[in-house]
Amino acid sequence: MAKKERTPEEASRDQATITLLTQATEEGIETSFSRADSMAACPIGSDGYCCKVCGMGPCRLVKEGQTGICGATRETVAARNFARMVAAGAAAHSDHGRDLAYTLLAAAEGHAPDYSIKDPAKLREMAGYLDVAVDGKTTEELAKDVALAALGEFGKVEGKIKYLDRAPPKRQEIWKKLGIEPRNVDREIVEIMHRTHIGNDQDAEHILDHAMRAALGDGWGGSMMATDLSDVLFGTPAPVISEANLGVLKDDEVNIIIHGHEPTLSEMIVAAAQDPEMIKYAKSKGAEGITMAGICCTANETLMRQGVPLAGNFLQQELAILTGAVEAMVVDIQCIMQGVVKLAENYHTELITTSPKAKITGATHMEFDEHRAMEIAKEIVRKAVDRYPERKKTRIPEDKAELIPGFSHEYIRYALGGTHRGSFRPLNDAIISGRIRGVVANIGCNNARVCHDHLHQHVVTEFLKNDVLVVETGCGAIASAKQGYMTPEAAFEAAGPGLREVCEAVGMPPVLHMGSCVDNSRILTVLAEMATETGLGEDISDIPAVGMAPEWMSEKAISIGTYCVASGAYVIMGHKSPVSGVEVVDRMISDGWESKVGGRMEFINDPEEIVRRSLAHIDKKRAALGLPEYDPTKWGQSGDARMEQLIELPLEERIEAAYGNKAE
Ligand code: NFS
After folding, report:
1. Are 363 and 285 part of one and the same domain?
2. Which of 261, 313, 446, 517 for a ligand 1 pocket mutation test, highest count of atoms within 8 Å of Cβ?
């Protein structure tokens, strides 16, 4: 039975999205929002007890105690389904990392002349993690050895992933004891597929332990290397100014949307679009220039390094085309809805696929090859420009917000102490004093089955009020950017008194944009450094912090959630548990994992409850560390607020107020 169609206001909290959804409804244009309304999720699959791993099924274990034809229990089936989600998610992130290693290798060997080593210091740091000797090598020689060592981590013959050493020693001990240190990135993913084949691993807990092992290979392996390799090739992010939401598109310019995940292609297109020859070509077609804007994690990659504006997050990809102002949407891998092709047929938009791994029927395929990167990037830009004269009526929403992204862990460390004294000490101290109550990492997707951006907006607003510092990546970060939470000024309005003082002192936004979803590895690095900085325990599980993906939908989000839990974090996923129908398995990933690794995964759909449980967890961890109870009344009298008060007073009184004695 068809579900009730939501109004645009019920479907999204983002004004640009509401405006365009209203148009789509009026014109009868189908989007992922309307498809979600017209088709209910399969109840058997969504509860986790549909088994389709062999040709005797699919077996639908709808009744308690029912088994599949082979005798597999609901627990086994649900655990297998969960583990396979982890495998797919870990594979996606890690394969992205592998390709970056190949790009670095090609650049080092001189086969990819359009790429260079933008951050040689980070290259040397990587060499240290990968046990690659640095002395006496040119940058190119070192880059080649680092690329080969990184590639080796994906399929090494023996030992464990080297990057695991970046975790706090206590955490490494836990992994070792449990036997879940990933041996290499690929092997653990392959082993999930092997174990979950019919007639193999049929103990739910055992399957789920291995899911943690494979996920750790993603977080501390594939993803962490992807982040480092991107920084080496394209530069380690530092703050830049930019804008977010569909209002960044321009009525009088050629608009090119880059969508997907890998910076390899998007960085080149951004460079090509700035080429005077390309701009001249655009002008010859009647446009004033070329505007680039990003969707999903490609957006985050080019935003963090180049300041390219964000067009929107996952659920806005179709809406970008609906503006009628997009000449080309250039995609590579991951999170690209097939629906964009059909939608683009209504407009002049050219949908261009570029990855050898991802073609979409009906799209134009212009395969990217890093060996002649700039040449292909220019061909793509030219193709977009050629579409400009075909543009008809446009309806670009006015909505957009300013933001300052670029908070790599290197920059955060620098901001907290400068070049020579950079450390996480001031952050730890702010948490210890209670100015900052705790930290929340709000990450992950949008989901067409929940109100777009609503959960992100609600929980972040509440955390800021409660003096919780929020760090973000992925589509969650884009939601906060659009909400205007990523400027230092936002702290005045949105942050509680303690957090505001810290933001004022450092000049940082209360919500820090830390990058794309592979860059959740930056969050792991920050947590590891906080745990080893002293004052907040010795392990990630000791820190008053919570991770969440309130609007998750992708398998990558399940892998991220799992590696964060295995790293000791309390993780709240919104929406619905993929194993919700099998209580035993739901308990295994919450209570069970907590007793093994100190972190737990819970699925909660109610935003109030997400906030309540997060704050309770933060306060519990504060108490366990012996930190003072959170008390916002103690703060708000220093920093800029204090300055504003003092400036009103005559000089003598000002000095007395500041130093407690009269001026001589
Ligand atoms: Ni993350 Fe990036 Fe967005 Fe979700 Fe997709 S873009 S890797 S999976 S939808 S946050």
Report:
1. yes
2. 517
